[in-house]
Design goal:
The protein is mainly alpha-helical. The protein has a single domain, classed as Orthogonal Bundle (Ribonucleotide Reductase, subunit A). The protein is built from eleven helices and four strands, in the order E-E-H-H-H-H-H-H-H-H-H-H-H-E-E. Helix 1 packs antiparallel against helix 5 and helix 1 packs antiparallel against helix 8. The chain starts with a strand and ends with a strand.
Length: about 300
């Protein structure tokens, strides 16, 4: 069997920085129900994603904590253990900030009459994961992190995908996208460094793809029903263009994301094989006034070699 080694300090094709940012947003005045350019489907879909994030972000943090004892067992170098734990602390800080901001976002949605229809489903799923080996939950985190990284890079790469958003909501979603691209290698490298199996990685990804689609469908449908837009022709048209329209118009998410999402199935896959190194850096530089920097850290990624 071919052995994959992981060595540190190899030049990477993506950003090696990870910054904890306090986003400057004010939800006190709320936002429109159809904040995405008046489009019912897009607003409902992005709201649905936000409604899954607090539980999801917490599960990512828990998965990192759950394998802490394995770091001591499987990594001999004290210096490497210390560096890795510092990196995981920054990862958890970013995710905790995302959880906090999206909880505020979801509070506004609740006041607008939107009900979280998938929360209990996700909670039960996480309880099942908690009874398994901690590496299984970490594999699930790797899977979801890849999924969100691809969606995030699509938002950052194609300004048309977010141009119709309300300015405050655009700031929120692109800030989240920036940080997802920054830490996209963290869980994956940890899983590999601790001896995670390829089969477990792939199975977790298959399950994550199924669960994400089901959760998104159920919550988006629920949001549209409560918005009174579920059966309107304009909603159907909005959905079709969102998935299958022209990317140059900010549409066609199927065309923009399918190939990078499927790349995860490659045996030699690594998150740094996808995306542009200067993309998150450029956005961070141009929008530095959108947040307050709490702390800046760095990522030392593990590059696969034969």
């Amino acid at each position: 069997m071919k052995t994959i080694k992981y060595t540190m300090n190899v030049p990477q094709p993506t950003s090696a920085s990870m910054t904890i940012r306090a986003l400057q947003v004010d939800f006190s005045q709320g936002f429109d129900r159809r904040w995405f350019g008046g489009d019912a489907f897009r607003s409902a879909y992005f709201n649905a994603m936000s409604m899954t994030f607090p539980l999801g972000e917490q599960s990512f943090i828990d998965s990192i904590k759950g394998v802490d004892h394995l770091i001591d067992e499987r990594i001999e170098s004290p210096a490497e253990r210390a560096a890795l734990r510092a990196q995981l602390t920054d990862f958890s800080a970013q995710e905790a900030t995302h959880r906090h901001i999206h909880a505020q976002y979801n509070t506004v949605l609740a006041k607008q009459g939107f009900e979280n229809a998938v929360e209990k489903r996700i909670e039960k799923r996480l309880v099942r994961y908690s009874k398994e080996h901690p590496m299984n939950l970490l594999a699930a985190t790797c899977a979801y992190e890849h999924y969100t990284a691809i969606l995030s890079e699509t938002l950052l790469k194609n300004p048309a995908t977010s141009s119709a958003m309300h300015p405050m909501m655009r700031r929120l979603w692109l800030w989240h996208a920036l940080e997802e691209t920054e830490h996209k290698v963290v869980a994956f490298d940890l899983y590999k460094r601790l001896g995670g199996h390829e089969k477990g990685r792939i199975v977790a990804y298959l399950l994550a793809m199924v669960f994400m689609q089901i959760d998104a469908f159920l919550q988006t449908t629920n949001n549209l029903r409560r918005d009174g837009a579920l059966w309107k022709p304009s909603t159907l048209w909005g959905m079709l263009t969102f998935y299958f329209g022209r990317p140059s118009k900010g549409n066609g998410w199927i065309w923009m994301t399918t190939r990078p999402l499927l790349a995860y199935f490659k045996r030699d896959f690594h998150p740094n094989q996808l995306g542009k190194a200067d993309l998150p850096q450029a956005y961070a530089s141009e929008h530095a006034l959108d947040w307050r920097v709490v702390r800046s850290g760095s990522i030392t990624s593990y590059q696969q070699t034969a």
